[in-house]
Amino acid sequence: MISETTDASANRSSAAKNAAQVTRRKAGTIPKVKNERGAPAPSAQQEMEAHAGTPTKTGDLPVRSHLEKGISELQGLHEVLLSDDLDPRVLADFRDALNRVRTAAWAAQQYVARKETDQDSTSVLSFLAGERIRAAYQLCQAISEDLKRPDIAVPAGSIIQLCEVMSALTEQLKGTVNRLG
Fold first, then answer.
1. What average pLDDT does the chain have?
2. DSSP class of residue 16?
3. Both ends of the chain: CA-CA distance in Å?
4. Of 38-42, 92-96, 161-165, which has the strongest mean pLDDT?
5. Gap between the Cα atoms of 145 and 141, Å rounded
6. Residue ranges of the domains in the chain?
7. Any idea which of 46-60, 61-75, 144-158 has the lowest mean pLDDT?
8. For residue 142, which of 78, 82, 96, 77 has the smallest C-alpha distance?
9. By CB neighbour count within 10 A (0-12 exposed, 13-18 middle, 19+ buried), where does 110 fall?
10. Alpha-carbon distance 181 to 176, whole Å?
11. Positive or negative CA dihedral for 27, 67, 18, 76?
12. Hey, is 113 helix, strand or coil?
């Protein structure tokens, strides 16, 4: 009986760690630099623009299948979240990721609704850009904290890629800020 309890506890702890890692990866604190083909993963806006010509409704089979799978995974995380051995930072990352998903889902719904009624969808895309800026700010703050911690091993390749993209973004931001002010 004690062995079964220990095994169950170990499985729960392992599941919690795995879910936390997946959550952190999805939240952006563990970078997933490239997808399987070696190309950068598309942004939410790129995904929407790519499918702008093909009307997608939540009743469509692929979309419905993905949403149902996501719902099932979230329900499965319920037990993991109830375990008492989770790091508060992991829980904060998870909540941030959920908030980004909720915002993206709302924006996608607004985008589809406006496209169906031939309304201008640029305000939704602008909103998403603002949300990405907010999320990037939060992620930059978290990365800064991670880099200060000696117990966290950060992959060198990811840091180099992040530095390169941040340098390019910094130049773009300077140009944008100069145009604004």
1. 74
2. H
3. 69
4. 161-165
5. 6
6. 2-149, 156-181
7. 46-60
8. 96
9. middle
10. 9
11. positive
12. helix
